[in-house]
Amino acid sequence: MKDLNNKVAVVTGAGSGIGRALAQALAARGCRLALSDVSDTGLAETVKSLGEAEVKSYRLDVADRDAIYAHAAKVRKDFGQVNLVINNAGVALSASVREMTDEDFKWVMDIDFWGVAHGTRAFLPHLIESGDGHVVNISSVFGLIGVPKQSAYNSAKFAVRGFTEALRQEMKLEKQPVQVSCVHPGGIRTNIANAARMGKSENAAGLRKGFDKLALTTPEKAAETIVKGILRNESRILVGPDAWGIEAINRLLGSAYQPLVERFSRKNLYV
């Protein structure tokens, strides 16, 4: 996909953060947009920011498998084709394995993994049909390394990475006209930390303040990086200097990265 002009792009979680910035970046390149979110208010604000772009908005809970498949069919009917799907919607949880509840664990997996998996599978036939498709799934740097108190989030984001990398290979081997990219953002200045659920012993205010200090990249810069990665057909799109650093450490040290994370966590997470 060398040119985004007049392509139909689907973005989940488009009501704020990276999703909104992606909608704006894609609109600037001439995409026709199918945007969804669980927040009607946030989605309306995104649509308003897009000016004269061709856009349709849809309320969608990506934790609802049947709703995702119905959404895919509706978008195909509304636009006549689907070229680009960005499974971006996500949530966060900070809690130890001992403390997190089954409900919270399921909440994260239903949105951050199953929302991506069902979103990919629901739209894949339409992407193949287009003859020029691209799937972009948002993982995280926490899909590259394990971090204390992020076991649920790690589980989802590692799963997204494995699912997406396997799909890319399948599309190549089956000679299907669909490219596949997995995105690993570092700290992005979005509302995800403020909206995160916390374990009962977590210092919520302290953790959110700490995240704000580590969020090095704006949503707008993240979106530009992702769009450039799409146009280059990159299999792994790293977003932010921290993402590049973590990926390098992981490559160089393998599992020996863990003592570094333990030292960081002892200072910043166990206080």
From TrEMBL:
Residue ranges of domain Ketoreductase in the record: 7-191
Alphabetical list of PROSITE patterns matching this protein:
ADH_SHORT
Q: Which domain of life does the protein's organism represent?
A: Bacteria
**Entry's CDD domains?**
SDR_c
Keyword list, A-Z: Oxidoreductase
State the family named in the UniProt similarity comment for this chain: Belongs to the short-chain dehydrogenases/reductases (SDR) family.
Question: What's this protein's name?
Answer: SDR family oxidoreductase
